[in-house]
Amino acid sequence: MESSEIFITALKYEEKIRDLYLSAVDIVDDDRGKRLFKALADDEQSHIDFLNYSLDILKEQGDIDAGKLQTPIPSEELIRSNIEEMKAKIPEKMLGDVKRDLNSALQMELETSAYYKDASEKSEGKIKEILEKFVEIEDRHVNVVQVELDYASKSGHWFDFMEASMEVE
């Protein structure tokens, strides 16, 4: 697949998830949830901006600066090290249909991450480097959404690990 085709397809994924996050900002009732979805929407918009920049550079036969692709979303290690603090900041009662939005977001983030992984395996050079960076960033989004969903669902899981057994002993 040609680099411009990869980026055009990626734009569709990024726009779709950005729009979901923006709609969640309007649906969620608590301020913390609004800030979370707004931060994720802003990060997705920065991906859209980077992809548009990359498409322009490719048209000019220039070299894409991968350093322009950044994210404020913390790494998995940082999230794991701050789980207790994060739990304390999540309101006990999250208003609005936040679980539905988080479930949708998780599925979209997983699809987007899978797209970037597949595309990076089929690419080489600078484009592969950029796609691998997108994989890392999208995996961070998956982690943040999973943490929020685990807590909101009260499933006994926290960050994909069993926190407390739901089994009757």
List the helices and strands and how they pair.
Layout: H1 3-27, H2 31-59, H3 76-81, H4 83-89, H5 98-121, H6 125-153, E1 157-158, E2 161-162
Antiparallel strand pairs: 1-2
Helix pairs in contact: 1-2, 1-5, 5-6
Describe this structure in words.
71% of the residues lie in helices and 2% in strands. The chain is an all-alpha fold and 169 residues long. It has one domain: Ferritin, core subunit, four-helix bundle (Ferritin, Up-down Bundle). Strands 1-2 form a two-stranded antiparallel sheet. It is elongated.
- Whole-number average pLDDT? 79
Low-confidence stretches: 156-169
Percent range for β-strand residues: under 5%
Number of domains: 1
Query: Largest sheet at a glance?
Result: 2 strands, antiparallel
Give the helix tally.
6
Q: What's the gyration radius in Å? A: 17 Å
Name given to the CATH architecture: Up-down Bundle
Tell me the CATH topology: Ferritin
Q: What distance separates the N and C termini?
A: 54 Å
Structural class: mainly alpha
SSE run = HHHHHHEE
Look at the structure and give the CATH class: Mainly Alpha
Q: Percent helix among the residues?
A: over 70%
The backbone outline, from C-alpha atoms, is elongated
CATH superfamily caption? Ferritin, core subunit, four-helix bundle
Q: Tell me the quaternary state.
A: single chain
Strand arrangement, major sheet: 1-2
Quick rundown:
With 169 residues, the chain is mainly α. The chain has helices at residues 3-27, 31-59, 76-81, 83-89, 98-121, 125-153, and strands at 157-158, 161-162. It is elongated.
